[in-house]
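User: I'm writing a short report section on ligand binding and want a predicted complex to refer to. Could you take this sequence and uridine-5'-diphosphate-xylopyranose and write out the structure as tokens? A short remark afterwards would be nice.
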Amino acid sequence: MANLLCIGAGYVGGPTMAVIAKNCPQHRVMVVDINEARIKAWQSDHLPIYEPGLEEVVRIARDRNLFFSTEINRHIAEADIIFVSVNTPTKTYGQGAGRAADLQYWEKTARQILEHSSTHKIVVEKSTLPVRTAEAMERILQSNGNPALFDVLSNPEFLAEGTAIRDMEEPDRVLIGGRQTPSGQAAVQALVDIYANWVPRDRILTTNLWSSELSKLVANAFLAQRVSSINSISALCEKTEADILEVARAIGMDSRIGAKFLKASVGFGGSCFHKDILNLVYLCEYYGLNEVAEYWEQVIRMNDWQQARFVHNMVSSMFNTVAGKRIALYGAAFKANTGDTRQSPALEICRKLLEERAEVVLSDPHALDNARHSLGALAEKVTFEPDPYQAARGAHAIAVLTEWQQFTALDYESIYRSMVKPSFVFDGRNILDHKQLFAMGFNVFPLGMPPLTHFEWGGDHPG
Ligand code: UDX
Ligand code: UDX
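Assistant: Sure. The structure tokens for the complex follow:
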């Protein structure tokens, strides 16, 4: 039996360790966090995050070999393998502000591990970190003159929110980076043995530390780049009357391109894409690779532009003003099947509409609490309404911002009757039946295809 510890009980640490515990009943898995309320929630029937399948996994393993605690120091002392998944947000101050990762929590955690360790430990970087962070972690851990005490590994997570449990249970690959020394390789093997309890051996890749760290950033940058690429083409489709769904299908059938991650949208969000690309950009600039930095930075610029463009289209289509108009936003989460609103395009669009003095009503099945929190002082100006029918009542427009399945199954006839005329739908995820909505009387603005409108007006769209 090994004692596994995870520091950081967030979106990554919680689900990851729950799946490890479920699949490795022979090991004891402890998850700790400085946030007492979060730990209490993990111990209760109301888990702190919404993730399909998570409750079942936690129910199987909790109090059997999965435990949650705030006693960080004691559990560090007992652990054999320590996963670090504390948050590493983008720096908001000083050198590298707005680009580099803020490593203060991570460094504090490394020092805490050092202080409370007297037996050998494998320390696993789970948090996404700039390349060569493992080296810095090693330096801190070896600073008290006992270098043999620690082996540092990089084991980035590739789980996507909403499918985190499936991604962990059946990963495309598990990546483990370690030192090429005998003790480094023994540590890699120890972690391989944990995953091998449920992951086929040929899906467990072992690399050197830096390749592993960089691969995480690059994987997310490539994924985000696909979203920005298709979104850039959605703008062109709107001008040329090509249809983005047809274009995506046509290019996606080329097996070299592949069909996934080609959905035009209001933009990518989430805690990872933005931050990881900024990290990559910062890293390139640091090494003087300015062209490479600019290349990747454009992925973020395109994403910002897509959101600005969406709001601009809304305003210009609604006779160049939304001031005082009630607008129902369907979706606050950055994607469906999660309650997470970090970097959510929906909230950015909400902010921009507030600037235009619209009366914004936000509706989401799972993300309203997080949305209220993320909006901060602006939350006062927003109405939070879990019921999409109530949200649309008396509204001039609905904008679909998150692709929740629920939004496709609503009775839009009755919604139409309850709205101000002319009524508009802006489908920022292309999930609704546009022709049907048009037939009901809506003026429909999908992404990347011509709008369906009942009258002509000036503005960006010829109507
Ligand atoms: C985080 C990072 O954002 C991501 O880059 C990384 O890949 C994994 O960890 P996530 O789990 O989504 O992702 O973050 P979050 O939900 O904020 O969880 C981090 C947890 O760490 C929080 O619960 C926080 O309280 C805890 N924490 C933070 C500590 O326990 N100790 C600290 O010193 C700082
Ligand atoms: C991502 C990576 O997929 C995962 O491997 C990594 O570990 C963490 O970051 P996540 O952010 O949870 O996961 O969600 P993901 O499914 O990748 O979607 C990211 C964003 O892109 C969402 O806002 C989503 O709506 C958007 N997206 C995705 C699109 O707009 N179009 C697409 O075709 C796909």
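A remark for your report: The chain has a mean pLDDT of 94. The chain has 17 helices and 14 strands.
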